Design the sequence.
């Protein structure tokens, strides 16, 4: 392997750089899902594999520069045709091909030098993306535009800490309103809401979500402010990075910070929803035993390049974590050993898909089409029989959730000492007739199904209960949840925002379309 030039930059190192680029690029597209430490093994093995391939080719043709070129083009071609989202690869292949054609009569150190430089420049793209993502997570972005009403308020520490209320905040993902359950699912949910009323909850009769997507809805609730299209966090063009940022805006919001100033403990129930990562300053509740899933990043990468089958489809239910997380979230009593006051936050993936649990809380494989977190038309494809399956699986999971929640909240009411407020709500309604894959708008989405949701609040303070009675008759938009809580308990004067709801497509969460009342109430063609 003798080279004309001894200069290191004339060596064809670009196949190795390309080997580094593939796992790095996959990571940058999924930074909100994986930790960088998950990538280390891949970053060593992938370049080594490319180097081995290069060596094999060199043993055959005995021309080092040519072997490097052939290996890189082959790797790029193989990856691209198994891995469509890596849109940058064809550009790299074309660029290398142009260099090759330009110096095809003399594929030597000059050619390698040019491609080395080119590949180094290419490698900068994921490196910059990783650095800027970490930056975005580290920066104080909980209130990026300074619009949150919670940022500017001042709450004095009371003389007696015991007068501060413990706050329990349980989110039931995709929980529909009773009217939706009756009209679209043919299910009478009033025995559940009546029982909640019996144990002291005030159940909202007309509850709206500000957004059709989980992270937009939840981050705006914790921000206490609506978003503007393309502004603040929504200026992030990469949708996955945006979701990661919005997730942090939920778990480390200005609300949690204000409560910490008041010496609250922060309890975080791990529910397996990857965009909501546990902040380091919280006290966690984990399910006791999770199946060992290995390195999720590597599994994702290997399935993407066709070496492993897609993880979700291939996994047996017994190896899945969702039910384990769910059972733990709705039964945990770890809060009993924590000093009050505290904020307990749990975002439960129920009755949202996957539908792999029955009403008794046992694993089921009855609804195979809904064994992943996919929702709406990403799962139903708008097909009638699949929509029917969605409704059945949803109701089964709802029945389990209802029973487990009643048990859990009863326990909380009787066992959490001192003043307390327990809030349970859906982040949005169900998605049997949701179409969020069209970037141009809600299409044939049944908006009333998605925007009308569920809210029940318990307080053991009679004055607060009295103020909450308006939920029984007036429209309540969840954007106002913490505005209301702060005004009631901390004597702030934030007030409530006008009721508004926006639609965002799954691919373009940065772009918000304001919906009017007529659109939301329009009859659904189901
Ligand atoms: Zn959701």
Sequence:
């Amino acid at each position: 392997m003798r080279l004309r030039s001894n200069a290191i930059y004339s060596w064809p190192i670009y196949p190795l750089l390309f080997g580094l680029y593939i796992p790095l690029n996959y990571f940058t597209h999924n930074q909100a899902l994986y930790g960088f430490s998950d990538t280390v093994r891949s970053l060593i093995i992938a370049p080594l594999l490319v180097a081995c391939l290069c060596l094999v080719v060199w043993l055959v043709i005995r021309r080092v520069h040519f072997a490097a070129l052939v290996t890189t083009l082959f790797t790029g071609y193989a990856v691209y045709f198994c891995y469509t989202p890596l849109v940058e690869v064809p550009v790299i292949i074309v660029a290398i091909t142009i260099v090759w054609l330009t110096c095809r009569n003399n594929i030597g150190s000059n050619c390698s030098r040019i491609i080395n430089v080119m590949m180094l420049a290419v490698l900068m793209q994921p490196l910059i993306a990783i650095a800027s993502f970490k930056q975005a997570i580290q920066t104080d972005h909980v209130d990026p535009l300074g619009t949150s009403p919670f940022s500017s308020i001042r709450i004095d520490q009371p003389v007696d800490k015991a007068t501060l209320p413990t706050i329990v905040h349980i989110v039931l993902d995709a929980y529909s309103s009773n009217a939706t359950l009756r009209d679209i699912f043919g299910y009478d949910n009033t025995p559940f809401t009546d029982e909640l009323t019996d144990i002291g909850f005030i159940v909202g009769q007309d509850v709206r979500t500000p957004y059709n997507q989980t992270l937009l809805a939840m981050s705006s609730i914790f921000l206490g402010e609506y978003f503007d299209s393309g502004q603040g966090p929504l200026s992030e063009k990469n949708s996955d990075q945006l979701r990661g940022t919005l997730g942090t805006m939920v778990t480390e919001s200005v609300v949690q910070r204000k409560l910490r100033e008041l010496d609250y403990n922060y309890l975080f129930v791990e529910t397996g929803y990857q965009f909501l990562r546990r902040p380091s300053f919280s006290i966690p509740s984990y399910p006791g035993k999770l199946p060992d899933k290995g390195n999720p990043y590597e599994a994702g990468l290997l399935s993407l390049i066709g070496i492993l089958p897609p993880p979700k489809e291939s996994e047996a239910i017994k190896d899945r974590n969702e039910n384990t997380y769910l059972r733990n979230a709705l039964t945990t009593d770890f809060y009993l050993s924590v000093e009050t006051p505290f904020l307990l936050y749990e975002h439960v993936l129920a009755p949202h898909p996957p539908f792999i649990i029955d009403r008794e809380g046992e694993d089921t494989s009855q609804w195979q089409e809904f064994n992943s977190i996919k929702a709406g038309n990403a799962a139903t494809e708008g097909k009638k029989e699949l929509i029917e399956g969605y409704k059945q699986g949803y109701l089964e999971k709802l029945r389990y959730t209802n029973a487990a929640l009643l048990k859990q909240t009863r326990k909380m009411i009787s066992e959490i000492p001192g003043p307390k407020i327990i809030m349970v709500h859906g982040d949005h309604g169900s998605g049997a007739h949701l179409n969020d894959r069209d970037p141009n708008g809600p299409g044939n989405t049944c908006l009333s199904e998605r925007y009308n949701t569920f809210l029940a609040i318990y307080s053991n303070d009679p004055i607060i209960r009295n103020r909450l009675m308006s939920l029984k008759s007036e429209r309540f938009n969840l954007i106002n949840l913490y505005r209301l809580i702060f005004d009631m308990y901390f004597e702030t004067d934030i007030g409530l925002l006008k009721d508004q709801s926006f639609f965002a497509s799954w691919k373009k969460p940065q772009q918000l379309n304001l919906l009017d009342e007529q659109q939301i109430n329009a009859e659904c063609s189901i």
Remarks:
- Residues 167-521 form a domain with the Alkaline Phosphatase, subunit A fold (CATH 3.40.720.10).
